Amino acid sequence: MHFPDRRTEFEGECRCGRSGRLHHLSEIGGPLCEACFPESMRRRVARDIRAYRMILKGWKAAVALSGGKDSGSLLHILQTLSRGRMNFRVAALHVNMELGEYSERSQQVCEELAASLGVELVVARISEWSVRVQQTGRFPTCSVCGGIRRPIMTILTRRLGADVLVTGHTLDDQLVYALKDLLSGKANPPRPVTPQGPVFTQKAKPLFHLPDRAPAIYARLVGIPVVEQACPLFIPDTHRFKDVFEALESLAPMAKKQLIRSLSRGLRRPPLPDRPWRLCPECGEPTYYNPCPLCRLRGWQTGQGMTAGELGPLSD
Q: What is the domain partition of the chain in residue ranges?
C-alpha cells in the first residue's frame, strides 16, 4: 500500500489574520503562518517544561547540541524562554565524534549557533577518552556511537555544574523507542523526564510532544544553521519505523500524540533493582559496573585484556 506524503504547507489565511504560506502539522494543529509558528512552538515547549518540571527556576540546563535541526531548534527555544519569565540558565554541550569532515562541520555549526545566541558551549572530542566509532564485538557502529556519546554527555553535564541534561528527542523518536521495546518484549513507558540517580544526571526532553517536522520548520523560519549532510555512517534502514508512524498519522490525524499518551499511561515500568554503584577504578566516574561501560569499550578497542564476551552493555 502506498501512503502519499502529507500536505503540510499551503497558501491561505492564518487565524491571526495574516495571509501567505501556512504550516499545518496534524500532530499539533494549525494551520499557522510563518510568524505564528515559531511562537506556537515556544509556547508548547514552555508548557511542557512547567507541566513536567523539566527545568526549575534558577537551574542551569545543558543542551546536548549535535548541529542538527532538533537540538539547534531546542537551544534557540530554551535561550529565548530563559530571557523571559522562566528564569533558568542555558549552556550547550557538543561531542565531536571524529568522523572526518562531517564532525568538523557539525562542531563549526554548533559554535556558530552558540555564539549567535550568546550561549556557553563546551566541546569535547572522543579521542580524549581513547575510543573510536567503529563496530566493536557484537555491537554495530551506531550502537557504539550512542554508547560513547551518552556517557560523555553525562560527564560534561556534571563538569559544567548543570542541573539537567536536555536533549532534542521528538515525538517520533519516542514512538520508535517504544515500538522497539515492545517488539523486544520490554514494556518501558516513554517518559519526558528521567530523574537524577547516583549514576545519571536528570534528563529532560522538551520536544517530547512535537513531531520531527516541527523543529525542521522552526529552524528554517528563524534561520538556525544546521548540518545539511547526513552522517557518513548513517544507515537509512534504521529509520524505517518512523515511516510506520508517518503512515499512521496520514491515515488518522493526531494518532501519534494519542498513541504516546496511551503508552505513557498504559505501560508500567518494572521496579528498578537496587543496584550498588561505585566509582570506576579507571576513570573515577560513578557506574554500576566495574569498570564503567566507556572504559570497558576502550579496553576492547585497544586490546587491553578484553574479549568480546567480556564487553557487556554499552551503557549503565
A: 45-233+240-270, 277-316
Whether 100 contacts 126, CB under 8 Å? no
* Residue in the block written with cell 500524540: 257
Tell me: pLDDT of 8 over 90: no
105 CB contacts (<8 Å, ≥6 apart)?
A: 67, 227, 229
* Residue indicated by cell numbers 523543529: 215
Q: CB under 8 Å to 243, separation ≥6 — which residues?
A: none
CA distance 49 to 147: 27
Cβ atoms of 55 and 26 closer than 8 Å:
no
Tell me how far apart the alpha carbons of residues 260 and 262 are, in angstroms, rounded to a whole number: 5
For 157-177, write each residue's pLDDT tens digit.
999 999 999 999 999 999 999
Q: Which amino acid is at 277?
A: W
Query: Comparing C-alpha atoms, which of 159, 161, 134 is closest to residue 148?
Result: 134
CB 126 within 8 A of CB 133: yes
Closest by alpha carbon to 168, among 97, 86, 128, 224? 224
Class of domain 45-233+240-270: alpha beta
Q: Rounded to the nearest 5 degrees, what angle is found at the Cα of 287, between the Cα atoms of 283 and 291?
A: 55
Give the CA diameter of the chain: 68
Mapped onto helix, strand or coil, the DSSP state of residue 187 is coil
Report the alpha-carbon distance of residue 172 to residue 259 in Å, rounded.
11
Helices in the chain by DSSP H: which ranges? 36-51, 69-82, 101-117, 141-160, 171-183, 213-222, 240-251, 255-266, 293-302
Whole-number CA gyration radius for the chain: 20
Average pLDDT (209-228) is 96
